[in-house]
Amino acid sequence: xxxxxxxxxxxxxxxxxxxxxxxxxxxxxxxxxxxxxxxxxxxxxxxxxxxxxxxxxxxxxxxxxxxxxxxxxxxxxxxxxxxxxxxxxxxxxxxxxxxxxxxxxxxxxxxxxxxxxxxxxxxxxxxxxxxxxxxxxxxxxxxxxxxxxxxxxxxxxxxxxxxxxxxxxxxxxxxxxxxxxxxxxxxxxxxxxxxxxxxxxxxxxxxxxxxxxxxxxxxxxxxxxxxxxxxxxxxxxxxxxxxxxxxxxxxxx
Amino acid sequence: xxxxxxxxxxxxxxxxxxxxxxxxxxxxxxxxxxxxxxxxxxxxxxxxxxxxxxxxxxxxxxxxxxxxxxxxxxxxxxxxxxxxxxxxxxxxxxxxxxxxxxxxxxxxxxxxxxxxxxxxxxxxxxxxxxxxxxxxxxxxxxxxxxxxxxxxxxxxxxxxxxxxxxxxxxxxxxxxxxxxxxxxxxxxxxxxxxxxxxxxxxxxxxxxxxxxxxxxxxxxxxxxxxxxxxxxxxxxxxxxxxxxxxxxxxxxxxxxxxxxxxxxxxxxxxxxxxxxxxxxxxxxxxxxxxxxxxxxxxxxxxxxxxxxxxxx
Lengths: 253, 312
Description:
The complex is a heterodimer. Helix content of chain A is 76%, strand content 0%. Chain A contains 10 helices and no strands. The two termini of chain A are 26 Å apart. In chain A, 44% of the residues are buried. Chain B has 2 domains: 6-224, 3-Layer(aba) Sandwich (Rossmann fold); 228-294, Alpha-L RNA-binding motif (Alpha-Beta Plaits, 2-Layer Sandwich). In chain B, helix 3 (96-106) packs parallel to helix 5. The model of chain B has no long low-confidence stretch (mean pLDDT 88). Chain A binds chain B through residues 2, 4-5, 7-9, 11-12, 15-16, 19, 86-88, 90-98, 248, 252-253, and chain B through 15-16, 53-57, 74-79, 81, 83, 85, 87, 89-93, 98, 101-111, 148. Chain B: Keywords: ATP-binding, Nucleotide-binding, Transport.
């Protein structure tokens, strides 16, 4: 293993996050805080409990994921797209570093940023609402795995994208709507038919439900379904990345 | 005789568009030499370098670096190779120090601040180590590209058009730096459009045309083998046309008829000079000066890329 190479990319990416702290950390935290103010304090006070949990607290796991999913994709896709855009990708391609090492480095850095963002968002949430975490260790594990899944997806998007617009298409037009509709602000029990059934086609519902379980031990879908969805969320982009490196798709001519 | 540090056998490349960029190139580069790869735009120079460095996938053939196949043993092969690409591709927001240190780590070398300092000082970049890349001039960026390529101490360095777009002073500096690198034991392969550059620095020269290596050899030997000499006869009186009695030598007129030029092969058994001069005397053509001129590498290059191998 080229550990020096992995470290070099990892620290390079983390240093870039440090230089863009407003964009990578402060902005998402402010946005999430606004959600807490509006949905938690202003509207939440008028809402009934969700599955026995105070509404303002209920939305905390979902809001963390809302931020983590989009930022995971953005950070990982930007990390690999930017060298392509500037042309410095030549150095990565000519270095004695294997595809798996490259993925570990870029995705590892993006996951680290996402986990830090999630924990800061969680801390921010505690300023607005009481938050209990039934299974803190599982919560962190779930957080890391969900971040990994979406960082892998972001990495694949970063290689696929030919311009900045394409880089934004999936997070803005696919992931964000699916996350909003994935039970961030409500329990599926609150929905009438046919939406209650339709919403089960949304993979993010399973992730939000599983993540919320680590906080409150309540679920919208069976925990096993959430675990399966999480495994699939990691396996699919990973398979795409393996194919990309095997074929050199949009990396090598 | 030592083993080649780079051995290329039957290298072919056909791009997805169907363009055949390389047509079975064979090339050995020996340790410690400076090799210049000449060729016009689109000849396949950058494709060749890119395949060796792992940036482009070959369609066929093999590349070994110090005996390591660059596909099956890519790690060992790539560790030995450094590349300075033609384009100035840099991380605009990084400092010189950070980007050079990054390159060293990427190539699997442990952190060594002393080594980085040494490289930056050699390239006159030490004072700029804290500057961001976007604050540097084009020439300085070019130096940083070289520093990045040298950061992992490669045994084989590729310089793809290293002096394209740089001023004369910096070009001279680059040449000096390349000579120092060779003195330190680094093998250098450079592509260039500047014949002067190849003539000035290279030990051996290869000329690539439409994906084929059409000439390869020691620079001096190539010039001797393929270069011809020109005898220039400065006439007392200008001629309107070449007298038909001189047709068998095929001389041409220059300088408005004041100079008669005869191209000859100095290594041939007979150069024809004696017969030509006797015929000129017979014709009572007066002349005041005689000189000979060796065809330059540029003449050879131009004739080769135009497919006139025997016309040099």
